[in-house]
Amino acid sequence: MCRKDRLIELMHDFVLFDGGVKKLPRAHQYFGVKAAQTHARQKKGGIIWHTQGSGKSIVMVLLARWILENNPNARVAIVTDRDELDKQIERVFTEAGEPIKRTSSGRDLMTQLGQATPRLLCSLVHKFGRKDVDDFDAFIKELEAQPSPTVGEVFVFVDECHRTQSGKLHRVMKARIPNAVFIGFTGTPLLKQDAQTSLEVFGGYIHTYKFSEGVEDGVVLDLVYEARDIDQRLGSGEKIDAWFEAKTKGLNDWQKEELKKQWGTMQHVLSSRSRMERVVADIVFDFSVKPRLSSERGNALLVASSIYEACKYFTLFQKTPFKGKCAVVTSYNPLAKDVTLEETGANTETDKQFIYNTYAELLKDVEATPGTTKTETYEDCAKALFTREPAMRHPPSN
Fold it and tell me: Into how many domains does the chain fold?
């Protein structure tokens, strides 16, 4: 590290101020950027596979900055497939002092690439596509015959390249900007069905830093998997007693007695509940038993299989001690036109109406920040609390 040429290089190319905090790369980030520099000089694409949580965003910033500084004709466009990631990329670059243009539409993106500035852009991958395409192969041929004019040497960074970009949308990008160099970033091992397409689209691996290496280096925490099963036949007192014993295995007799007092008549409550209510009860119980959670210094995510189920869980949590300490984050944004006001029966709600009503209730005291919807304000605040203040806190409201 202190070899003269490397130390000078670290100071010149690898010091980053992220939101005012001075950062240098870890070894895998340094060597990942170095390998990518070689590819960039040769105008060759490829894939950087660095395990999730190991700092891919910093690699992107360092590489983009180096390319723009060392190639006066270079342009860098960073493409992702989720609005949340698009915002994150913009934030990381902005906080690192690199001005970046977040494009508003596909046309805007191609217009920007068709002129000399800005040199650094970000976009959603879907803005390259078109919804009303019947014959996709014919559409690709049409694009290839009339590619969009671009100024300069375009480098396209594709975040989470193992997802949608490996398919049709990526072919659209390559057809629109045929001379661009595509560099894919992923934190996930490529599944067999994606690997061939991804490697065809981007080329081989530029650099890899796998999960096991990250764990060994202490960069990411190892995963601990605990199989769970919510018994749907908790009808007898014996079964509930067995469940209680299993859940409290690590506690002493006094702690067990105290919990029993708090939970009171679990036999009556659990045996009569639906499966979702038992899941909620199980989670609330975990927060009483697990030290990391019972200390109120931790938090948890519950992933639901649908927006309706997420809203249902949210409403169930409002009937527990977790009321005021939960948030629901989905892709849904309540609009009156989404809801049919017809009832399916006396005093019942349709699924759409239930989702709409759940959101209407949780957003009623939220004041939208300028340029965002109430939902975006609520979710941005919930995510910030979750990541920056993991102790259980009240969800965002005015």
Answer: 3
